[in-house]
Each structure stands twice: as C-alpha cells, then as structure tokens.
Amino acid sequence: MSLEIVEGDLLKQSVEVIVNSWNKNFIPWWLLLPQGVSGQIKKEGGFEPFKEIRKKGLMKTGSAVFTSAGKLDFKGIIHVAGLNIFWVATEKSIRESTKNALRICLNKKINSVAFPLIGAGTGGIRKELVIKFMSEEISKSNFTGKVILVLYKKIKSG
Prior knowledge:
By secondary structure, this protein is α/β, with parallel strands linked by helices. It is built from four helices and six strands. The protein has helices at 36-45, 48-55, 91-107, 127-140, and strands spanning 2-8, 17-22, 64-67, 76-81, 112-116, 146-152. A six-stranded mixed β-sheet has the order 1-6-5-2-4-3, with helices on both faces. Strand 5, helix 4 (127-140) and strand 6 (146-152) form a beta-alpha-beta unit. Helix 3 runs parallel beside helix 4. The longest helix has 17 residues, at 91-107. It starts with a strand and ends in a 6-residue tail after the last strand. The model has no long low-confidence stretch (mean pLDDT 89).
C-alpha cells in the first residue's frame, strides 16, 4: 500500500474511486445544499450518486456506501457517514469511515482511492488530527493499493 498526502482538488486525482464525506443520510438529498466535496460532486458529477445513496437508507455513523460516479470519470464514489446526527465528526467516526471505505475498496478490487480529510471541514476536527487518525487506520488496513489523502487547496482568483 502506498499513501500520499497532497494538496489539491479531490475530483482531479488520478484514481479509480473517490470518497465523499457524507452524513447519516436521514435528510433527503434534494433538501440539502451540499457543500465542500459533496457540492463539487453534485456540480460536476450530477445528481445520480445522491439519488443512489438515498435509496440505501439511513447510514450508521462511520459506515460506507458505494455508488456510481455520475458524470465523473471514476469507477464509483464511496460515501462515508463521517458526521454524526449533530453534524459533528469524532475520532471514532473518522476512523470507522476510513476503515469501511477501504473495506469496500478491497471487496470491489479497487486499486486506487482518494480521500478528503473526513471531518476536517463541517465536522470541526483539526486537520492535523484528521490526518493522524486516517493515516493510522490506513496503515492497519489490508488494502494494498494506492491511497491519496487530499488536503483541499482553495484556488485564489484574480
């Protein structure tokens, strides 16, 4: 397994699958105004992945679900419930989300995956802690492919 930590855009990574830090899936997707990674996926990939995830029903905190990638050029998207019912991330939700996303990669024979920092945005956990929790879980996994942790880098305009 190889782990890279890069700054950039999750949707521009050269991988088979990306991870979307989602919620517990209890609010209809069309009522939400997805932000961050989810907002970017909706904007560039369309609504299909969100329609698919809705059909999966309520997600346990830390769980993961695979959907199509919509109009994006990936084999799929793994949506993780990185936030609890109060829209907050915890060490456990970050670790479980990472572990369960990698389990899906193993089961689907995925060779490369890119993660955002689960819980570092809306979830309220410091970026350094998120990297620590995720890196530890990645190192414990049986996944042998390429893993990229993408630190979002806002592009300055003008």
